[in-house]
Amino acid sequence: MSILRLVTLLLKGTLQPFERLCRSLLFYPITWVLSALCLIFLSGKFADPPSKTDAATLQVGGATQNTPAVEIPDDAGVVNVKSFGAKGDGVSDDTAAITNAIQRVPANAFIYFPNGTYLISAPLLYKNGNTWRAYLGLQGESQTATIIKLADNTITTIGQCGDSYGLDNRVPRCQSNAMIYTGSQNATTSDSNGNEGYNNYIFDMTIDVGRGNPGAEGIHWIGHNSSAIRNVTIKSDDGQGFMGLDMRTQYFGPALAKNVTIEGFQYGMGIDQSFSSVTMEHITLLKQTTAGFLLMQNIASIRDLVSDNTVPAVVMSGPAALILLGGSLSGGAPGNSAITFQSPGQVYLRRITSSGYGAIVSSNGITVAGGTSLDEYSSSNSMVPTSNPARTPMLPIEEAPEYSDNDFDNWANVKSFGAVGDGKNDDTPAIQAAIDSGNSTVYLPFGTYRLGSEVIIRENVCMFRGFGSTLIGDGSGTYHAISIQNTNCASGAVTLNLLNGGGGFAGPEIEGASNGTVVLKDFRLLGYTTTRNWRGGGKIFLEDVSFGPYYFTKQSVWAKQLNPETWMEHVINDGGTLWALGLKTENARNASTILDTRNHGISELLGGYQSTQGALTNVIAGNPNCGQDGRSNCPMFINFKATVTIFTVGDSVWWSPVLYARHNQRPPSLIDADRLPSGRPGPFYWFITDRDKTTPLPLH
């Protein structure tokens, strides 16, 4: 902290006795020497808080390993793996104990791993007996000190490799050698594949494949709708591992990977399926021997990729799509390109630096972007001439605030105030009492909580969280809101974390009635809206959030891995700014609008997946109800006196959808609808309009 700021704090701040003494010394020249000593001492005490990332410049830092330790109260309903006999001493074989815990904990539960090294000699499978399961989280105490390690020299052969699903067979699928296999509840194959791998979480730990284990993989990950890997290191010290994070499943995504470091392996991570998408942020890839990221037939939306490799950072083949915002790709060999792709693959890159490589980007063996830095590049030649040189509008990006407090004296357990969590009793009064108790963290232990009326987030609450906990309605078909009002949270942001809506799409709607900052993480809900005649404003951060709809009024919104699935308009940006990295939706039955930007709003959608079927022929003829109920046979995108940037992909598996964007009039006519190009597989779309223009800018 600067001396000037420190003096200002001493003159104006609320001080402790010693600090008041230092302030008194400032006023007398004879004591200035003593006051200088005070300032030197206090300059360390009042260190400057860490500054936020300058989003506009997309500073690249990769994954961090400095996340605070995760401590969980004993009464949170989280299962401690040591209660099943795991030792975590780096010597005992903990395979049986961990497997027993995985098989016995209920759906949506978390297994907690205190710091230690948990040695295993066989894969950990998300199974209950012989049946694959989903809805399970593994939570470590810390990324660096909670270690699951494969015993050295456990795997002596590469294992059973092959192409089981008719996918690209140029890279062998070593299906039996992953340390951890997450699962799908409708898996039909021997290695967990299905399309219902919901709520599969792995947080705050290191996965170490050991030495002398050729072909070993760290995590074979399958996740859908609400699934995330956060603050995880995956490593192969001797480099003999095959792949750190294997997403090459029959169906994958949407899912979120954030703050992930992968060291060693032939490939750092890979994905190979054209269904859905993955969103990533703050990814570090180190010391791979073939490629950092192998991307085949899927859509990857990444912000902040750090790669230190002689081999290419990203290798793409087939109809793959890469959206990369901010990359530092170093260590390359002159004969390699940092990013390589082949037709019909597509890339959109923004603010990339590289060193050592012969080129930043090559396509089909031809250099398309050389040098050591790249401001913006689109392989689809879709740059719209809104500036000179041509470039897209770029909304500033902010990091979601992180709240952590391991002082349990500041935590309130809703069961201490009378909540039962059995899904039968109305727990609203108890939850509200816990919120109003003055504690900064309010938690719902694992269980199911029935809401018979509205819950209001207020008082001193900074964190309202569950542990895979479920919220359901009152049984009448009504699902009451969780209303976020102005709070006295010292951090300035209210976070809601790890809560589920019961019964599939059922769950609470979040009502914004505050101009403060709100963070929603790993959350399934009925939607977000601003109501009560609220004029809007404030900041909203969404990470790994599913279902909906979402109605934002004059707010600044940053969304990562947003999965709106609803029969209504999915997302409405009414006069605010919306930046979304990775938006996936299934729009098969009603063909309702995905994104409606209106009233001078600005929306930027970067990457995602839209699975669209429905009676699109009716869209061509026009539907008088579209834009009024927003529910059926509507344009995929609506832009009304607003600015919209879309860089995304359509459905690349079953259908070849016709997409429309209506840019001027709302109901009822679609005469001015613009038909966006479509193709199969993996079409890319650029659609940009200028604010308040009655016609769109050139469409490519």
Descriptive overview:
- With 700 residues, this protein is mainly beta.
- Among the domains are: 3-49, no CATH class; 79-309, 3 Solenoid (Pectate Lyase C-like), CATH 2.160.20; 330-378, no CATH class; 549-700, no CATH class.
- It is 8% helix and 40% strand.
- The strands form 6 sheets. Strands 1, 2, 3, 4, 8, 9, 13, 15, 17, 19, 21, 23, 25 and 28 form a 14-stranded mixed sheet that branches. Strands 29, 30, 31, 32, 34, 36, 38, 40, 42, 44, 46, 48 and 51 form a 13-stranded mixed sheet that branches.
- Strand 6 and strand 7 (131-132) form a beta hairpin.
- Helix 2 crosses helix 3 (32-45).
- The protein is globular.
Q: Work out the number of β strands.
A: 51
Overall body shape? globular
- Major beta sheet summary: 14 strands, mixed
Tally of individual helices: 6
Structural class, from helix and strand content? mainly beta
Helix content: under 10%
Strand content: 35-45%
As for the CATH topology of the domain at 79-309, it is Pectate Lyase C-like
Structure summary:
With 700 residues, the chain is mostly beta strands. The chain is built from 6 helices and 51 strands. Helix content is 8%, strand content 40%.
Pick out its properties.
700 residues; mainly beta; Pectate Lyase C-like; 13-stranded mixed sheet; 6 helices; 51 strands; 40% strand; globular; disordered C terminus
